[in-house]
Amino acid sequence: MPVPKAELHLHIEGTLEPELAFALAARNGVTLPYADTDALREAYRFSDLQSFLDLYYELMAVLRTAEDFTELADAYLERAAAQGVRHAEIFFDPQAHTARGIPIGVVIEGLGASLDRAEERYGISTRLILCFLRDESAESALATLEAAKPYLHRITGVGLDSAEVGHPPAKFREVYEEAARLGLRRVAHAGEEGPAAYVREALDVLGVERIDHGLRCMEDPSLVDRLARERVPLTLCPFSNVRLRVVDTLAEHPLRTMMSAGLLVTVNSDDPAYFGGYVGDNFDGVRDALGLTEDQLRELARNSFEASFLEDDEARRAR
Ligand code: ADE
Ligand code: ZN
């Protein structure tokens, strides 16, 4: 039995497996520029974050109807349940869909239809986190939050993702202030490819409660001390970091060093269809590559519930 865990860093669009991409393409009359699933998998060789994002956004063309989003989420939840996930806080990228003419309501209601049955079908509690694309403008982020207002009952928080370098957190101060006024929780990707200074800025300017990735905080010892003291969770994604060349090999991943430094770290899958495995596979991968003990694996699983947006009693039940 896999250890019960929460997954806190998961882009639902990054769970689009090649087989589902081709099935949706056929259903929706979309032509993909790949002969078959093998040819598509061949394209999964990334040199950095941007080379991945180019393919990630390209494949989203197959997602068109609410049912498509429902099927996508169902497929993720089924795989996640098999790997011990009891709670999932799921990111989605509305601007990547509205830019293609898909209304935000189609995306949210489609995902919502799956999440509504997730407890009953898969034994997984869920939350939805709306992410802003940081390589789009601050105005576009504000317009996206405005468009999401009729659906806020379905949304727990906001996040920030896409190409990091050159798009510092402070660019999104206003939309995060508005999100806070609306009672939304706040997280942001920072310190994946971008510098440790972006981690500080996400905390100080955007008021985030959790940092997605945050790896590069290790370059700033006083920041590490602060993150440990304030128990700011970091949602690490080991397979992602190797595939996007943030670290050279899994054996060189700083996860263990980060745990020893007293950081509240969690293990997650990011975009599992693209990076070679779901969250349980990431747990197994770091166990083998870094020689983590059963106690350390249990600590990571415990951290995932502590770092979640579940209330204490809900987290106890999920564990
Ligand atoms: N969007 C999907 N996956 C991402 C990642 N790892 N970093 C930034 N944006 C993303
Ligand atoms: Zn991510």
Automatic annotation (TrEMBL):
GO biological process terms, semicolon-separated: adenine catabolic process; hypoxanthine salvage; nucleotide metabolic process
Enzymatic reactions: adenine + H2O + H(+) = hypoxanthine + NH4(+)
Binding positions (Zn(2+)): H9, H11, H189, D270
Gene Ontology molecular function, alphabetical: adenine deaminase activity; zinc ion binding
Co-factor binding details: Binds 1 zinc ion per subunit.
PANTHER family registered for this protein in UniProt: ADENINE DEAMINASE
Protein's UniProt name: Adenine deaminase
Organism: Streptomyces vietnamensis
Lineage summary: Bacteria, Bacillati, Actinomycetota, Actinomycetes, Kitasatosporales
